[in-house]
Amino acid sequence: MNDDLRNIILGVVAAGISAALGWLARTALSRRALRRKQAFLGLPENSESLLVVNRDPATSEPAVHRFDVYALLELASLIKDCGANLQMVTQDNVQQGFGERTEFCVGGPGSNRRMVAHMSAMLPGVRVNVDSEPGPDRGAFQIGAERYRLDPGVTEYVLLARLTAGQRPDARPVFLFCGQRAITNQAATRYLARNHQRLARKHGNGTFVLLLKVVNSQAYGPDVVELVEDVTRAAQAPLPPAATAPSPASHRAP
């Protein structure tokens, strides 16, 4: 065997080893990223999850707004990526506690009874005005001492929350997507899908409540979303006395 042939063989072998090592490294990184995603979402391989569907308050018949359907599809894709299973159930047909299965709950208190229960139990510092009559505070969020009004199609808000029950280390999280309009629910699910790695790095696998602003949805749909503030502390504390009086049509934790 001459030197040229030996060099060719050695080069091929070295290239094969490098390719194999690169594949192994990429596979290991991909698996680690998947495990982190599963841990953050509370979705181990073959685990069970619950997808709570709201209703469209604008119709008298049981129906789901098309933007909420898009939100559910975004979440179903996340669940599938983790290798988990999902059960879809309507907001008025859930009769179980939380912590046993990861739950994704979509829609504000005006369209989702399950959301009302979760907010009353875990977010006493949040009030949502569900008055059907026109007015400046219709759809507004009260979070602690701050109020966030709805300007349809221009400036709209949505809460994205990851909540856990008690101190149980094995408790599965509940994710809330509580928006002022259906398109903001989709914006929050898309924000979670796009930013779950960053959120996991910042918040770990613990509780957080984020206030997001959807900008100019009439032009950009659910794509332009800004983080307004981490409102975890205010949302979990009782409302201040000055914020607990008006509007009997508002939702407030008892």
Tell me what the structure shows.
The protein has 254 residues and is α/β, with parallel strands linked by helices. Helices cover 38% and strands 23% of the residues. The chain has helices spanning 3-41, 66-81, 113-122, 182-203, 217-220, 232-236; strands spanning 48-53, 85-90, 102-106, 126-129, 141-143, 146-148, 155-163, 174-179, 208-215, 225-230, 250-252. It has a seven-stranded mixed beta sheet with strand order 2-1-3-8-7-9-10, with helices on both faces. A four-stranded antiparallel beta sheet has the order 6-5-4-11. Helix 2 runs parallel beside helix 4 (182-203). The longest helix has 39 residues, at 3-41. The radius of gyration is 23 Å and the shape is elongated. Residues 245-254 have low confidence and may be disordered.
